[in-house]
Design brief:
The complex is a heterodimer. Chain A is an all-alpha fold. Helices cover 81% and strands 0% of the residues of chain A. The chains are: A mainly alpha, B alpha/beta.
Amino acid sequence: MTGELLRPFEFEFFRNGLAVAVLAGALCGLVGVYVVLRGMSYIGHGLSHAVFGGFAASALLGVNLLLGAGAWGVASALMINRVTRRRVIGSDAAIGVVTTASFALGLALFALFGRAGRSFEAALFGSILGVSAGDVVAVGAVTLLALAVVVLAYRPLLFTTFDPEVAEASGVRTARYDALLMLVLALAIVATMQVLGVTLIAATLVIPATVARMVTNSFSRMLVLSTAIGATCGFVGMNLSYHLDVQSGPTIVLVGAALFAAVFAATGAGGRRR
Amino acid sequence: MTQDGAPLVELRQVTCRYRSEPVLEHVDLAVAPGQFTGVVGPSGSGKTTLLRAVLGSVAPVSGSVVRRPGLRVAYVPQVDTVSWGFPVTVRECVLMARTSGRVLPWPSPSERAEAAAVLDRLELGSLADRHIGELSGGQQQRMFLARALLQRPDLLLLDEPTSGVDVRTRHEVLHLLSDLNADGLAVVLTTHDLNGIAAHLPHLVCLNREVVGAGAPRQVLTRAVLERTYGAGLDVLEHGGMPVVVDQFHADEVALGRASGA
């Protein structure tokens, strides 16, 4: 039994995939705290779809996927950030236009140039096949960067998230921190796209933070818990993915959803005070 | 606190617009050290914009805002502008006032001590580790005040601090602000509450895009000024030496009802 459980660790692709899944889970859990508390879940969802357009364009142009999709994601994030600060049209509508157009462009590019297949499916639903040691390093670097941002900008990010008007009035450059957060979010999505898939990243941004919120009333503890929950879901989900022969993205998300249901049931419908 | 009598902030012919709509027009206002001013006016009269112009978060399209060099201004928003389900304790929220100057996420011993002193002064010391959502309306207002005081301001701006609170809480807030003002802190607040708050303040500004009247309540709370401010007939009575504003239309209606024998 134990031998069967440990068997996938004999394969390098699995070890790499597992490392990326754990790091990606931790990264999304960490960034997801801000996404959830700022009510940006839809932005996270939209941005992950927008990145797909960059992924498709990079694949067709032969550009490094992380770099190409990363540049596309950063551009989309800044565009969304700019749109959400204006109030001429509803930000949800603007995000819907920008991100679904980008997603549609990705689908069209794959359809027109016949590059559908493994990479196409991997981008949509996640796959551990083809995760290299370089990918592990890249996701690790983005995780460290996000951690550094959260620690070094802890105070202004907290103030900007809780009370942007007074933060601005108190001298915090809220627009700068909003943009910084969007950049970190875009990088997190790009870095985790291969394992989780663009259609499911939003769930890994939202579920760990939501579960953490249900069990704590402290912002700092929520950051730590959400990161740990994300990493744990990545670890458990990847192992289940191998044994059940189901794609990694859906399995990780389902593990998170099961945890959410369990905590929701255990803490009562309200959980901590909302 | 500043000592000499030169204004802390002076608005000179300030005009502010939201998109193309004028919100403030040619407003002159000076806030002196130790001043305690209430700004009254109907909804949409530009009260909040006036505070933001003083604060510097809204730039005038014409005119100028002159602030004393080194002036520290703290702002207390309306309590319903934040999510009270946000996962922070009272202490964490108050310590947000110390966002600049220290990079480390956790507070220094001196920051904790200062926060504790301010919380004790506002009678929130025993609630420091409570989640903010567990506070009553008055306690929420005092917590915002504590956060503002931790910035050691020369001037405190409050946007409708008594909006939606009961009479007891309103009195608490007003007495607290009076105490702070007595310690030398300049205070400017906006309110809809003409009788509960405004009539108790030493200085009032009636605003309806422009300054309609400014001065002591007895000077400002007149039928003519109130009609220009609110665009409706209001009467001013006197009770216990204080001006009391009543709804003129309502009084006429009652009189008409009596005359017709209804």
